Amino acid sequence: MSHETTPPQAGVIAKDADGSALAGGGVSPLTPSKDVRRRVVTASFIGNFVEWFDYAVYGYLAAVISSVFFPEAERQTALLATFGVFAVSFFVRPLGGFVWGHIGDKLGRRKALSLSIVIMSVSTFCIALIPGYASIGLMAPVLLLLVRIVQGFSAAGEYAGASAFLVEYAPANRRGLYAAVVPASTAAGLLLGSLIAALLSSVLTADQLHEWGWRLPFLLAAPMGLIGRYIRTKLEDTPAFRELAAKEGTEEKAPALAMFKTYRKQLVIACGAVMLNAVGFYVILSYMPTYLSEELGFGPTESFLATTIALASYIGFIFLTGMASDVFGRKRMLITASILFMVLTVPAFMLLETGDFLVIVLVQILLGGMLTLNDGTLPSFLAELFPTKVRYSGFAVSFNLSNALFGGTAPFMATLLIAMTQSKIAPGWYLVAASAVSLAAVLFATETSRKPLKHL
């Protein structure tokens, strides 16, 4: 595909894809047109949407899956085992971050993203084909664990790659808005998963849902993945990456190792900043239906409906947050998010215990809105912390390391803390702790929103 360029305008200083003025006032041949940028946004949204729909369905159907693969265990033990499988699959994500970061920084963002979506779709499709415990015994949860590990490896490259892709294509003054497409598409994938789970819970009997109904969403992975890959292969790589690749001697032989050697401070800050996103995302947007049904006694349909409403509002808020981060700066938005969670999370969980459906919906909208202050800002913040030659690696390693330790384990920890403390608000205190860590990390960061991307 030929890459279009924007013609120069009289009296205007030309700028490259980073927003930096070009020597001699010329126009960079790599500067993308508005039409190209629209296609980039569409491809990033659809690809990320497909990946996270695949990844999220497991969390929404955890209660059903626990009875299929751990039928002989006591209900809470089976749920812990199911979330344990969910958590173990995250432990491979730091390794995936290294691998996908290396591919993305050496061979290009597009190649990494096109390959990761295929692996995710195939592994998700395989979940639908695994026989239950009643058919093959212990091999059932073993196969489930293996497929989940492959899923975790694939997902390690998606969020970071899509964020870097968008930031490197975005106009300099709109990087926050462009990068907000990533969490918005993630939430859209969750939203579809929630809608399908709610639909299955309402139209199928409990026996039908346990016997075959839970498998249906996983079967959608194959066709959706093929569509996402097709769209991604029709794009060129980012202007920043192509500019770097064109300069001899600038590429890193081992980007991840170079990142650890030269950018350790940025890596530590990034890992800490991701903490609130890691815990908040999986507690508020993934674990919540299970929390409402298993801990508070709501029906599955009501639980999914409440979360669906919250997800829809989250998607709207995320773009506002992205725009706000371009105006007010990344650091200010991230600090505000942490402080709000530290102050309001526990009272919000107390309100959930009232059992009033309207109150629960409003609380979830509030928590989701607070989370967007972090989630809508984080992709651009992390991408801007690292230069182009290690951007994919820096983002992927920090994001996946924090998510492996604290994100994937969040549903398990929430369930365990409730069991240990006999308190339904225990997950709220866990969120407060995560917020405090994120706040401390961001305080040591410098503002990145008004600086040009560093190419070298």
TrEMBL record:
Job description of the protein: May be a proton symporter involved in the uptake of osmolytes such as proline and glycine betaine.
Main location: membrane
Bilayer topology annotation: Multi-pass membrane protein
Subcellular location as annotated: Cell membrane
MF term (GO), any: symporter activity
Residues making up the signal peptide according to the UniProt record: none
InterPro entries: H+-coupled_symporters (IPR051084), MFS (IPR011701), MFS_dom (IPR020846), MFS_sugar_transport-like (IPR005828), MFS_trans_sf (IPR036259), Sugar_transporter_CS (IPR005829)
Keyword Magnesium: no
Family stated for the protein in its record: Belongs to the major facilitator superfamily. Metabolite:H+ Symporter (MHS) family (TC 2.A.1.6) family.
Transmembrane feature ranges: 52-71, 77-100, 112-130, 136-156, 177-200, 212-231, 267-288, 303-321, 333-351, 357-374, 395-420, 426-446
Name of the protein in question: Putative proline/betaine transporter
Residue ranges annotated for the Major facilitator superfamily (MFS) profile domain, each copy included: 40-450
Cellular component GO terms held in the UniProt record: plasma membrane
Keywords, comma-separated and alphabetical: Cell membrane, Membrane, Symport, Transmembrane, Transmembrane helix, Transport
